[in-house]
Amino acid sequence: MSTASPQFALREGLRLRRIPDPCAVVIFGATGDLTHSKLMPSLYALARLGMVPPNLTVIGVARRMKTDESFRGEMAHAILGPSTDRDAPPLWEAFAQGLFYVQAEFNDPQGYERLRAALERVDQERGTSGNRLYYLATAPEFYGDIIQQLDRHGLVERGQARGGGDGRRPWTRVIVEKPFGRDTKSAAALNRTLLRVFREGQIYRIDHYLGKETVQNILVFRFANGIFEPLWNQHYIDHVQITVAESGGVENRAGYYETAGVVRDIVQNHMVQLLTLVAMEAPVAFEPDQVRDEKVKVLRAARRLTPDDIKSEVALGQYAAGVVGGREVPGYRAEPRVAADSSTPTFVAMRLFLDSWRWAGVPFYLRTGKRLPKRATEIAVQFKEAPLPLFSEGGREPNLLSLNIQPDEGIALRFIAKAPGTAMSLRPVNMGFQYGTAFGGEELTAYERLLLDCMLGDPTLFTRRDEVEAAWELFEPLLAWWDKSDPPPPVLPYEAGTWGPDAARAIIERDGRRWRRL
Amino acid sequence: MAAALNVTSVAGVPERVDVGAIERELHRLWSSLDTETHGAGTAGAHVTRICTLTLLAVAPNGHCVETATAADRLATRYPSRSIILDLAPHTTGPVPNEGTLTVELALNCHTPGPQRPAVCCEQIVVSASGRALARVPGLVLPLLVPNLPVYLWWPDDVPVAHEPSTGTTRPEPLPPPEADLLRRLAENADVLIVDSSAMRHPTAGLKAASALAGPLSGGLRDLTWGRITPWRDLIVQCFDPAPMRAALERLDRIKIRAAPGQSEHAVPIAGLLLGGWLAGRLGWEPAGSARRDGRLLRALFWRDGGGLELVVEGGSGPVLSFECAAGGGEPCAVSIARQSAGEAAVQIETRLGRGRPRATAAALALADDTVLVGAEFEVSGVDSVLREALEVVLRLMEGVS
Predict the structure, then answer these.
(1) In this structure, what is the dihedral angle of CA atoms B177, B183, B188, B191, given to the nearest 10 degrees?
(2) Counting one residue from A and one from B, how many pairs have CB atoms under 8 Å apart?
(3) In DSSP terms, which residues pair with A287 in a beta bridge?
(4) Strand partners of residue A349
(5) Helix (H, G, I), strand (E, B) or coil at B286
(6) Residues sharing a CB contact under 8 Å with residue A315, sequence separation 6 or more, in sequence order
């Protein structure tokens, strides 16, 4: 069977996903934590799995002076560990040959000339074909400079509405790390800066939550099974709880966290992703824009909080000293680089409503915080009780479907069964599915998956412009209230190792419900 | 690694095996396991029962333990009920010519990670000899888990019906009970997995297996095909850049080298399948059968605008290297070679036009049979690309011994 494009004929039937085009990945902020701990290990893991082309090339850009060799040595240490520096596997040697370093201040035109020369050289020597993936792993204040300088130096292939990758012209894509702005205005400004140079199809706004298998499985669970979707509405669902609990504290992120707080750090991005995936309508096709269209509709249907609502629908908290996992931990204000009188919230609980036919009247309770008793991310869908209680002994527990995102990835359905015996005694039982047990094996980490998707030109698991702006708009009143109130609004202390302040319980208990015990 | 928490043997008495006893014994095993874990009082040490498929694995002669271990390893990633068939067609049992039929059951448990409940899978080992082979399908078929796919793994020679009129080029006929057993098992499977590299007569074996698997929803799978899949991935990558892709249409020489395998004179089936894949995908037409040239097999193809030669060197072992070249206005050459048979990486060299060759290295995993079988569990439906490549190979090997 001969076709006009033999490449595609050969690709058919291959079990690995399509392999990306040869390309140069340019990491701005190459000496930072993210590069060491996530980006480079992910790229190497993809190379080891044979999921990227052997001539994949990485150019690190940062302000510190380094040579290609010292950059390679640093990356070997970060990826392979100190003991393997002298005994690196052959594959590492080949991978390391594709690592280069360019020293540049992010606003220095000469640095971009050096970058251009390096890119031209790797195109020639390594066959990267002019394909570029820029990864903005710097502090957000440098994004504007980097984007403008890339454009000024002709380092962006313009006018690629769908991100290129058609095999005829080289492609350019850019991954933008979070935080994507700090409110609606700054996010819109950053979008304008990006869109002056790139087309929307070239911009990949990353939220690593979307790279998690279990998050992607929400869509599969809902839309590949016929039995749940008919129940997935206000007729059968009583309420939904979304929890993102962290047992850790602010650790080495205090500088950022002091200006961000929990709403910007977790709610506006990660929790919004979970909310939209659990609440969206079925897309007409599993295509990037169709999926994202439906997610945006959820955000548009979300009822805006008025300043009065905030007082009754939201509880903000900040952890005080306590015990987590048997270890005494300091309070937030005693953490390094945190102001002694900081009013930054580290916990939030809130009630949201979606004004749509599907979800009218169904409350969505969201809670997230640091220094909670355990690390757990879960979406719990509680169904309404059976309409008529036929059995007198027990059996009043409503059905509950929990989608566990981490750490025990899986799905559990609670239903009622008869306990063995002569009495009609009812007990709740759990029917569980766990990823680790049902499928086993290793899966790609979130960063591996998202880097691969971007190289392949698939933006499904990235956030679109309107989505990110709609997410900011939804929480704008809350952020404005926190940012601009004078004196600052009350942020209630809670003991580390507990599930947040009492006010968080009040938000759900006044509706006759309670938070799940995780 | 799986750890057997409980092993038992039932129905060890010849002639007295019945399915009801096996199911009852499995139920008893599950109950005893429940009691053990709850009795131990270890918090969180519950047992999870998961089954995603039935694996029906025929152990090569004398390799029952290895096959059972492989099935157990597979179950850690693909929880399943595995049924191992340990067949000895020529062995006589206590009653001359009657043979024996015995069944052993085990629940093999493993813990997927810390604080995770143990996952337990059932393993049933059926040993049959002599005439008792004929009773194996009747015993096994009711044990297939309903509504889940059944994978029949037949790792050895596929029995081929004797056709006297075709002369001496056909493989020897295998005992009828085995052929009949394979037919009856295959009728109830969704996928038939074979390994053509392990066959004495791979082309005849693949032809027979293909016919048996024709009606199955998942069709035929070949572990040799699984071994060349990473090679196919790398070849596609080499031809990804547009100028290289253009050269693909001008190829005029391909040379594939394979390890000797069982015998240097055996059909180099892995290399042939790799060549057959390119030919099938790119629409090259075989210009007759291949011919032997010492240790080489040579085949000619017609393609748009000319012809090309495929040379396969070596035996039935795995592919060691792939080289191809295109002439015309801008010459092109690609070479992918494993430096040694045991190395999990390859050296790649590409050259286009008069430029310097570009060299790099890439991972190319050495997967064992267990991993290859597992990979088949992840593929649904018929592998039409394998079928296409196989058609090319069968045409090339027509009349070639």
Answers:
(1) 120
(2) 131
(3) none
(4) A315, A367
(5) strand
(6) A347, A348, A349, A350, A492, A500, A501, A503, A504, A506, A507
* Distance from the B110 Cα atom to the nearest Cα atom in chain A, whole angstroms: 9
Whether A270 sits among the annotated catalytic residues: the reply is yes
d(CA A477, CA A469): 14
Return d(Cα A449, Cα B350) in angstroms, integer: 28
Q: Which amino acid is at A274?
A: L
B310 at A interface, C-beta within 8 A: no
ipTM field: 0.75
CA distance B57 to B140: 11
- B240 and A14 within 8 Å at the Cβ level: the answer is no
Checking phi first, is residue A109 left (phi over 0); if not, alpha (psi -120 to 50) or beta? alpha
Three-state secondary-structure class, residue A141: helix
What is the torsion angle, in degrees rounded to the nearest 10, for the CA atoms of residue A365, residue A368, residue A373 and residue A378? 60
CB A22 within 8 A of CB B240: yes
Q: Answer for the pair B81, B122: CB distance below 8 angstroms, yes or no.
A: yes
Q: What is the pLDDT of residues B200-259, one digit of tens each?
A: 889 999 999 999 999 999 999 999 999 999 999 899 888 877 778 888 888 999 999 999
Closest CB from B112, B358, B360 relative to A94? B360
pLDDT category of residue A112 using cuts at 50, 70 and 90: very high
B113 touches chain A (CB under 8 A): yes
B1 touching A, CB under 8 A? no
User: Quick one: pLDDT band at residue B14, thresholds 50, 70, 90?
Assistant: very low
Q: Are strands B306-313 and B296-303 parallel, antiparallel or unpaired?
A: antiparallel
User: Do the bridges between strand B3-10 and strand A492-495 make them parallel or antiparallel, or are there none, so unpaired?
Assistant: unpaired
Q: What is the pTM of this model?
A: 0.80
Residues B326-357, buried b or exposed e (16+ Cβ, 10 A)? beeeeebebbbbbeeeeeebbbbebbbeeeee
B120, closest residue in chain A (CA to CA): A437
- A241, A430 contact by CB (below 8 A): no
Output the pLDDT for position A107.
93
Identify the band that residue B339 occupies on the pLDDT scale cut at 50, 70 and 90: confident
Q: Which two tokens stand for residue A239?
A: 């309420």
Cα B333 to Cα B356: distance, rounded to the nearest angstrom = 11
Span of A332-336, B63-67, B273-277 with lowest mean pLDDT: B63-67
Give B320's DSSP letter.
Answer: E
Return the sign of the alpha-carbon dihedral for residues A173, A179, A183, A189: negative
Other beta carbons less than 10 A from residue A505's beta carbon:
16
In this complex, is the C-beta atom of A438 within 8 Å of any C-beta atom belonging to chain B? yes
Contact B358 A168 (CB under 8 A): no
Whether B237 and A9 lie within 8 Å, measured CB to CB? no
pLDDT value at position A347?
98
Mean pLDDT of B254-271: 86
CB-CB: which of A22, A408, A436 is closest to B240? A22
- Residue B168's alpha-carbon distances to A433, B178, B310, B393, B401, in angstroms, are 56, 22, 27, 20, 9
- Alpha-carbon distance of B50 to B266, in angstroms, equals 42
Distances from the Cα of B92 to the Cα of B18, B128, B131, B242, angstroms: 21, 10, 8, 64
**Cβ of A205: how many Cβ atoms within 10 Å?**
22
B11, amino acid identity? A
H-type alpha helices, B41-130: 64-77
Residue B49 in contact with partner chain A when CB distance is under 8 A: no
Q: Are strands A410-418 and A426-434 parallel, antiparallel or unpaired?
A: antiparallel
Place of tokens 């509706």: A511
CB contact under 8 A, A1 and B280: yes
